[in-house]
Amino acid sequence: MPLARRTDLGDSNYAGLEVDVCHDLQRCLKETLEGGFDFLVTPLAHPRHRRPAPSARDPSAPTPAPFARSDLLLNSTQWSSQVVGKTSPWIDADSVSAPMRRDSEAALRQELMWAAHLSLHAVLLPTPSLKAANYARIVNQFLTALSSTALWVRIPVVSAEVEAAEANGGDGAAEALAKQIDPCTRRRAHDPFERWANLRAMCEGHPQLSACLEVGASLPPAAELRRWVGEPVKAVVLNADAFITNKRGFPVLPKRHQEFITTMLQKNVQVVLRWSGDGDKAYVVYLFRKIDAVSEQELVESGYRDYLQAPLQPLMDNLESATYETFEKDASKYIQYEEAVHACLVDRVRDADAAAGKVTVLMVVGAGRGPLVRASLRASDRCGRKMKVYAVEKNPNAVITLQSLVESEGWEDRVTIVASDMRSWDFEEKADVLVSELLGSFGDNELSPECLDGAQRFLKEGGVSIPQSYTSYLAPMTSSKLWNDAKAYGDLAHMETPYVVKLHRYSLIADPEEVFTFHHPNEDKVIDNNRYEKLLFKRAPDAAAATMHGFAGYFDAKLYEGPAGKVHCSIYPPTHTMGPTGEPMFSWFPIYFPLRTPVHVPAGTNVEAHCWRCVGPSKVWYEWAVTAPEVGPVHNVNGRSYWVGL
Amino acid sequence: MPLARRTDLGDSNYAGLEVDVCHDLQRCLKETLEGGFDFLVTPLAHPRHRRPAPSARDPSAPTPAPFARSDLLLNSTQWSSQVVGKTSPWIDADSVSAPMRRDSEAALRQELMWAAHLSLHAVLLPTPSLKAANYARIVNQFLTALSSTALWVRIPVVSAEVEAAEANGGDGAAEALAKQIDPCTRRRAHDPFERWANLRAMCEGHPQLSACLEVGASLPPAAELRRWVGEPVKAVVLNADAFITNKRGFPVLPKRHQEFITTMLQKNVQVVLRWSGDGDKAYVVYLFRKIDAVSEQELVESGYRDYLQAPLQPLMDNLESATYETFEKDASKYIQYEEAVHACLVDRVRDADAAAGKVTVLMVVGAGRGPLVRASLRASDRCGRKMKVYAVEKNPNAVITLQSLVESEGWEDRVTIVASDMRSWDFEEKADVLVSELLGSFGDNELSPECLDGAQRFLKEGGVSIPQSYTSYLAPMTSSKLWNDAKAYGDLAHMETPYVVKLHRYSLIADPEEVFTFHHPNEDKVIDNNRYEKLLFKRAPDAAAATMHGFAGYFDAKLYEGPAGKVHCSIYPPTHTMGPTGEPMFSWFPIYFPLRTPVHVPAGTNVEAHCWRCVGPSKVWYEWAVTAPEVGPVHNVNGRSYWVGL
User: PRMT5 arginine-N-methyltransferase domain: which residues (chains A, B) (predicted)?
Assistant: First the structure.
């Protein structure tokens, strides 16, 4: 029975129970469901010992007893939705003993085939060793053969060796162990993440291969836990020793455990209990219900989570009505613009001049359906500075809305509509203030620089552009979901396109760094909007290993800064603009620059990358490359995969 | 004028002259050609200083003077075949100064475009810095835009810093410098190879991007020089300081220099002199002519150099007459078989039994057009052991040849022809000796194990198979030509297929390691020809960095070992079988297992790899993967790209 009926938390509504032995499957499943769980994690094979591989079996010996229960015990719906199979614990496909390896290989294949035959939703596989090449190959063969059964690999959040060292009270010993490096692969031998990363690399991040995190008594540092959010974690197994007993004698999770489980539940990760003590399921339900209810906006956004959108081409295409509507809903953005215009008016027009009736000419370029006109007029009203507004808009459909707005609001004597492209329009009157909202998620990626360079000819000497400047930011990130979704298109172009994405299952590997900055109006003799930045992402010497799937991009725009106020509009996390009700501005999602091949970032290693903004006669594009920890190819050479038309 | 008329050495017939200044291009070229050179390496632009980028130029200023000479100075054939352009020496596209970078970028693009306009065969580019990301991007943009002009990048074999330290007599200082590691990329900062490897990685090994090695007074250790053979080196520039003066006052190269130049000339690399002293061209002609004349067999083989051949499918297809002919030409192979049969007969049949007329039954499985029958009969005649031969052959075309051979040689009473597939044939008489030549370049890759497992039912208890066993070997290798040729097919399948190749432009990164061994007859109760081997290729702690493009594969077959002799047949380099005239056996070229993505192997780092031989109901295939220095994907999963049909 689901933990709750929350549509925003998807899979995590369902909880499972893992057992190590199950003599009577039907009864075991019945009890599991009656206990409130949604599925049972149970061994695929009889709990017997090692079976010889067919090739090692004496052909004259009688046929061996079946290794598993009959598929008739449950119906196909039960098999596929209520049972997750576990492979036999004795299997070791990378054993140094060749006969053991051969028997293990045969048994692992046999059990996987059986699970596929039963159409199980998933099979839970054992923790691989650091270099489980043979295990990886068998898993990869199964995945590549296109079964619908997913594979979950059990990965402890802390290695058994480190956990044992911690339990022995040797904190220093545990730490030393955690930092040991494998001499051949140069990876931290006791960081379970490395085992997962190796396995995944050998299987090329197959979308049906996921991690199942096992949580016991100890948890690693927060930063190490955070890595997993960007990884394809499907479930968390809570072992009995993860629980402590509270004052009233009930089993509860320690605070950090609670926080981690809550985070994972919010990321659609299912919980599986490996202990059927009293009240445990109720406790998971309790944790789940404790997760804050989401706002209406968040609910809307949950549909966009980790969904790859191609960036807008605002110069080449006209926006649709629904797009305008979505953006106009973002009150926080227009409040910032109102504040910016307000501060700008106060700074430019002294009180005396205002009283004398001085009129400020304000030009909105790209007026759309009018939100910036409205915000500007509100600012004018608030500070008592008279204003004449030109609303320039090239989209004839939006002009219709604009005209009826002016009429319905009675703005006829204050607002002049100019139905024209700001790049080609020719006008006699010059403006004091040029207001625009041409920024994309990466600041300059919707060609705000090129548009405003063209429009600034309407600006008086000493006139102000709102925004005055904007800066883009990039941060290396783990995001296996996004990478796999781009990969699924099966071509180069989709691996070299930046996408607008509501990031959800991701984790940053380092803090964002500044990339490009543009100032308006641009006073340079010859304007050059080409840019190049070399980025060094410094990581702490004890930072854990992580996998880099690309970069998250943001922007921070200085709308206006002057004596009367400093107003920014930002999706750069440290300065993200918040709305009046404390909700973050939502008009822009971050941008995702993918890497064609994921890059392993070893523990304590910095990331070095390069980003270029290239301007051609008819298009603008980015190129990007990583040069540390490894040197990789330049992406999107000559804008071959992605560009924005001028 | 070419150095000689040797068809086996291709491009290296042509030598060039590099000049730093050339006031009168026509005269300069004329003198170069009169001096016996074939082409001139000369600056593309006037030898003036930095030109401002168009974006930094005052638009009101007069149009600047042209940066280059008129294209009318030479005709188009002269431009394209007799001139290689050099870019301006002041260009630094990765300068920390943004204006310098901008001007450099503009100038570099301008000069590249000019070279493309002139249809120059190549442009010689300056040595990149260790992390020349911006340089790499411009080069990559040019390459991706599909110009026919090749780019040669000047790479000194010893970095200027190390050479200076050596010149100062500080041998320890030079060595310490050579081993310095860049903190960010973890590469040896003063190994020029690293600069090349980084640039090439950013450009994804574009086939039009090559290295031009610059040789001065000092040379690095032999192993470091050897790396370059597998890299796309197009030319070697000999600086004036590479020469010393001999007793007679003539400029000559030191011995190690001579050896290096000779090696490169043999690998089709052109020589360019950067010094026009007396007699220098004559000296290069002398070195070139000194290269040993090749044998007829080598001349035939030169057409196969670095040419990718798909391995044979001998079970599914019948061989063609020409293929039989090629193999039969290899006397050394059949001499080994004759020796093996001879030793085997001597061991099995005592002199007394031989005198008593004891007959040995020998079965040739896969007799083809009869060379093994002939070799066996020769052995029998030599040692006076009577023999009855069954020649089993499934190819009806070969059987015709076999029949006429038996007739013409008068073997009717000694040889019985069986026109049948050894796997399905049913026969009453059992053999003492089973002789076959079913080995592929990687030993078991043409399914010798499966064929002989089937054929051993004709063998008496205690009977002998010739070969008795065989072992395959693999070694990691640099081979950019082969990798690019496989890549050029543009699909996954060609990057996961092992090819039979006459290796030429390659260098091994570590010594070969043993992979799989098969013994015949196979006495196992249940025969299992699946194999898995984990391979650790150890490299010396001071081994230089290299790029791994895949693995070279070999085999060593034990034809027969017994008291009367040990006879092998091998293409494994340390034991390569040599013929009676001292020429190596040529029936088998090595096999090349490609890697989908080249792997950088840092200095002093080991390579770890895995190889599997997988046997399915109807096919046999290999899978392979690298797990150190980096963990990479499993290749050819489930035999999706390459397999041999049973």
Answer: 296-466
Catalytic residue among A339, A437, A496, A513: A437
pLDDT in tens, B347-373: 999 999 999 999 999 999 999 999 999
- Please state, as a whole number, how many other Cβ atoms lie within 10 Å of the Cβ of residue A127: 18
Q: Do A201 and B632 touch (CB under 8 A)?
A: yes
Residues 6 or more apart whose CB falls under 8 angstroms from that of A61 comprise none
A446 is known as an active-site residue? yes
Backbone angles phi, psi at B485, to 5 degrees: -65, -40
Do A625 and B525 count as a contact with CB atoms less than 8 A apart? no
Name chain A contacts of B528, Cβ cutoff 8 Å. Answer: 53, 55-56, 102
pLDDT of residue B34: 87
Q: What is the rounded distance in angstroms from the CA atom of residue A328 to the CA atom of residue A313?
A: 19
User: Active-site residue A533, yes or no?
Assistant: no
- What is the ipTM score, two decimals? 0.88
A621, A447 Cβ separation under 8 angstroms: no
Asked if residue B393 belongs to a known ligand binding site, the reply is yes
For residue range A133-187, list pLDDT tens digits in order: 999 999 999 999 877 899 999 999 998 888 888 888 766 788 888 888 877 677 8
Cβ contacts below 8 Å, chain A against chain B, sum to 142
- Which of A108, A137, A531 is the best substitution to test chain B (most B C-beta atoms within 10 A)? A137
CB contact under 8 A, B136 and A634: yes
Residue pLDDT, tens place only, A528-537: 999 999 999 9
Which of the residues of B are catalytic?
437, 446
Domains of chain B: 7-293 (3.20.20.150), 321-645 (2.70.160.11)
DSSP string of A610-625, one letter each residue: EEEEEE-SSEEEEEEE
For residue B458, the distance in angstroms to the closest alpha carbon of chain A comes to 21
Per-residue confidence (pLDDT) for residue B388, from 0 to 100: 96
Return phi, psi of residue A200, to 5°: -65, -40
B-chain residues near A630 (CB < 8 A): 600, 630
How many Å separate Cα B299 from the centre of its chain? 17
Side chain identity at residue B565, one-letter code: G
With b for 16 or more beta-carbon neighbours within 10 A and e for fewer, the A86-97 pattern comes to bbbebbbbbbee
Q: Which amino acid is at A606?
A: N
